Amino acid sequence: MTNDERKRLVKELVACAKAYGVTRIDVVPPDEETPMLFSARPKRLLSPDEGAALCREWVPRIRRVVPDRKDTWAAGIMIWSPYGPPLGTYVFGFASEADTWLGEPEPLTSAGEWEALHTRLEAFLAPLGVNDSEDGADFFLFDEDNGDAWQSITIFKIEHLTPSLIAGIQAALRDGYANWTVGIVLLLEPPFDDLPDKGLEIRVDSVVEKWDRALLTKRLGDRLKV
Questions:
Q1: Are 40 and 54 in contact (CB under 8 A)?
Q2: 8 Å CB contact between 66 and 93
Q3: Phi and psi at residue 134, in whole multiples of 5°?
Q4: Where in the chain do CATH 3.30.70.2960 domains reside?
Q5: Which residues pair with 194 in a beta bridge?
Q6: CA angle at 78 for the pair 4 and 76, rounded to the nearest 5°
Q7: Which of 158, 162, 119 lies closest to 139 in space, CA to CA?
Q8: Cα-based distances in Å from 51 to 37, 40, 175
Q9: Separation of alpha carbons 40 and 53, rounded Å
């Protein structure tokens, strides 16, 4: 594949991936033993059906410029979770094999653990504001279990990101969830909707800043309370 062909292909893949919330595509060139790998990194967790649909759109486009191989897979599409390891990898282009999904990683946690912590966080957040993914909400506690020791809260209104919010999350983690993390994602309302979505990673005994504090301080001023 030439550089021009690769650029055209990536442009096509980006165009058809927008509907799935994919904001980044990485391409790893092949070698003698491994296929060319296309990584899709969406901003939200894709369902298995959405992942399969995205692959169905990508595969014909990739096949036009990546020929089948006789010795191994020609290419693979890795669908990432925004909150942990990949959801799976779809491989194709092995002349003697049917295209297939490689196994999804085993969950690192039980559904019961996730549900119990989610219920605890939901109860803590309830009196603090509107918890929903729809317009007008203050924040959103992500409600899908992806098998990792992770929960996520998206902040829409920066006023709701406070020291007491962080302290309450750490209190929820203190009883049985020392190895878990609660991620804070910023998806702020105008006029701050152009700010990056990176936020915080809250653990029982620490807070890791993933954002650009200088940028947020400059833009948000006194609104930034933490």
A1: yes
A2: yes
A3: -85, 165
A4: 3-102
A5: none
A6: 60
A7: 158
A8: 15, 10, 35
A9: 13
Q: Can you tell me the distance from the alpha carbon of 59 to that of 50, in angstroms, rounded to the nearest whole number?
A: 14
Pairing outcome for strands 150-155 and 181-186:
parallel
- The separation between CA 15 and the C-alpha centre of its own chain, rounded to angstroms, equals 19
- Identify whether the C-beta of residue 201 lies closer than 8 Å to the C-beta of residue 183: yes
Contacts 24+ apart (CB under 8 A), 209-218: 211/186
Torsion sign (Cα): 75, 93, 84, 127: positive
Q: What is the pLDDT, as a whole number, of residue 44?
A: 81
d(CA 69, CA 73): 6
Q: Which residues touch 166 (CB under 8 Å, ≥6 apart)? A: 200, 202, 207, 226
Tell me how far apart the alpha carbons of residues 145 and 199 are, in angstroms, rounded to a whole number.
20
pTM for the model stands at: 0.57
Would residue 60 be called left, alpha or beta, if left means φ above 0 and alpha means ψ between -120 and 50 degrees? alpha
Q: Any idea which fold 3-102 has?
A: Alpha-Beta Plaits (3.30.70)
Quick check: helix, strand or coil at residue 73?
A: coil
Q: Can you read off the two tokens belonging to residue 181?
A: 């993390």
SS3 call for 115:
helix
Supply φ then ψ for residue 205, to 5 degrees: -125, 15
3-state secondary structure of 77: strand
Block means of pLDDT (10 residues each) for the chain, 226 residues, are 81 89 84 85 82 90 91 91 76 90 62 88 96 90 80 94 96 91 92 90 93 94 93
Structure tokens at 38: 């296309």
